[in-house]
Design a protein that fits this description.
The protein contains 4 helices and 2 strands. The protein is mainly alpha-helical. The protein has a two-stranded antiparallel ribbon with strand order 1-2. A hairpin with a 5-residue loop joins strand 1 and strand 2. Helix 1 (7-25) crosses helix 2.
Length: 96
């Protein structure tokens, strides 16, 4: 089974991570806690606000930026032998 690193899956992971961060790290619930968690995660990803927003909306096609965000989520597509492509897809990398 090949893991799915599509823009839509990245969107889902980002939203789950922010939800987890809100529940664990931030004492106040609500919009302000979610906004703070998103800002912290964006800074950890080291991407611009627009790039993070595109990923949050499932519209980030740039493979390099998607891989960078996945790495900040402690998931490396290269460990699965995959290269993320700029069309929002992925392809297997020949190990040889």
């Amino acid at each position: 089974m090949t893991p799915d690193f599509s823009p839509d899956m990245l969107k889902r992971f980002l939203r789950l991570r922010v939800d987890m961060m809100v529940r664990i790290s931030f004492p106040s619930q609500g919009r302000s806690a979610e906004k703070a968690a998103r800002a912290e995660l964006r800074q950890r990803c080291d991407v611009s606000r627009q790039e993070f927003w595109d990923a949050w909306q499932g519209r980030l096609g740039n493979g390099r930026l998607r891989a960078k965000i996945w790495a900040a989520l402690w998931v490396d597509p290269a460990e699965f032998g995959l290269l993320l492509t700029d069309d929002g897809g992925q392809e297997a990398v020949d190990a040889g």
